[in-house]
Design a protein that fits this description.
Layout lengths: L1 E2 L10 E6 L6 E4 L2 E8 L2 E6 L13 E3 L4 E3 L6 E3 H7 L3 E4 L2 E5 L8 E4 L7 H6 L2
Antiparallel strand pairs: 1-2, 2-10, 3-4, 3-11, 4-5, 6-7, 7-8, 9-10
Length: about 130
């Protein structure tokens, strides 16, 4: 299924992707990587690339004082607010996650399950 861009009809249609978030928490589309992260009782599908040098944010740690994810490569902090602003559209229905990935016209998307080290629950509660 494909949907038209809401604000610019001239842009190409974007695919609607359905997946089981319990089986797949990481996806690869060409050179782009995304991962699921739970923040403040909501789940977001965010880019895995650190804006500084492209490091894997899913391997970083959560800094509670700054409310940010710290990249494991160069210790650059990416604010949770910024990640939420840039998150892909995501809806949960029963045990299925439904997302829209702009720019994913013809390149296949690989779904993976990876250990996500960023965990605000552990980082902020000392667990």
């Amino acid at each position: 299924m494909r949907v038209q861009h809401l604000f610019n009809r001239r842009l190409s249609k974007m695919p609607v992707i359905k997946f089981d978030p319990h089986q797949s928490n990481f996806m690869i589309h060409g050179d782009r990587r995304f991962f699921l992260i739970s923040l403040y009782n909501s789940t977001f599908l965010v880019r895995d690339n650190c804006p500084h040098r492209g490091g894997p944010l899913h391997l970083g740690y959560f800094n509670c004082q700054n409310n940010a994810i710290v990249c494991p490569w160069h210790n650059s902090a990416v604010s949770v607010h910024r990640l939420q602003q840039l998150a892909m559209p995501l809806v949960w229905r029963n045990d299925v996650a439904i997302a829209v990935i702009p720019g994913a016209e013809s390149t296949p998307i690989a779904f993976k399950h990876r250990y996500i080290m960023v965990d605000p629950e552990i980082g902020c509660n000392g667990g």
